[in-house]
Amino acid sequence: MKILLHVCLVMLSLTFYYCSEDTPIDQSPTGKLLIKSNPSGAQIYMMGINTSKITPHTIENLEQGTYDGFLFLQYYDTTYFTANVFNNTTTTIDTILTDGLPFVEFIFDFQISFNDDSVRFNFTINQDVTMDSIAVMRPVDVTGTSITDLYLYNEELFEFKDLSGNLKKYYLPSSVGYYPAIQNRNYLFSMFGHKAFGAKVEFRSSYQVGL
Questions:
Q1: Do both 47 and 91 map to the same domain?
Q2: pTM, rounded to two decimals
Q3: CA of 209: how far to CAs of 104, 108, 133, 139, 179, in Å?
Q4: Residues 105-142: pLDDT tens digits?
Q5: Is residue 182 classed as helix, strand or coil in its secondary structure?
Q6: Do 137 and 206 have their domain in common?
Q7: Is 155 left (phi over 0), alpha (psi -120 to 50) or beta?
Q8: How many structural domains are present in the chain?
Q9: Which of 178, 209, 179 is nearest to 191 (CA)?
């Protein structure tokens, strides 16, 4: 009888052991962090470390707690965040990235030639743009009569630097053309287009140059 009882206890112990091995108990519940951005594709940094992930992305198996991080996307301001993560819960960070490029600015200059009878304008830019059109309202004589020349570019890329890193000059009416030079009169330039990078926002700029 004692032997039979001993055998039963051994079998019961083995059964409990194997059942425990097959069905482990989860002793470490965790949370998730979903990180999104507009626009997407930003690199995700958490606690100062590059996660090698880009938005949108869900980071799993996080212990409950507070996490600091930031999002980096070229041409946009770096965006910082703080997230509180809880067990068995998905916390969401959804942010709009801010365009980090400055306003589009043009700097004009001009050269007068041919016995002061002709003028050619040039300009530089502070960043790459895609140009839609340029309208030039210019005087034709000393009476103040003006005409408008319209140049269409159909989203042509205007780079602000050449391959050597120097500012590129763009000419109006062209690199070989001239306007009549009317002294004591103003030339008005209206520039239309978009930033080439970042948020690619539209710009409409006007500049007045007097001789």
A1: yes
A2: 0.77
A3: 18, 8, 18, 12, 13
A4: 999 999 999 999 999 999 999 999 999 999 999 999 98
A5: coil
A6: yes
A7: left
A8: 2
A9: 209
3 state DSSP class of 92 = strand
Q: Long-range CB contacts (< 8 A, 24+ apart) of 162-167?
A: 167/124
**CA 83 and chain centroid, separation:** 23
pLDDT tens-digit readout, 79-97 = 999 999 999 999 999 999 9
For the chain, what is the mean pLDDT?
Answer: 89
Tokens 């365009």 locate to 99
Q: Residues 147, 205: one domain?
A: yes
Residues 86 and 126 in one domain: no
The backbone region for 143, taken as left when phi is positive above 0, alpha when psi lies in -120 to 50, beta otherwise, is alpha
In this structure, which amino acid lies at residue 155? E
171 and 188 both lie in a single domain: yes
Could you list the residue range(s) of the whole structural domain that residue 205 is in? 106-210
Q: Are strands 146-158 and 90-96 parallel, antiparallel or unpaired?
A: unpaired
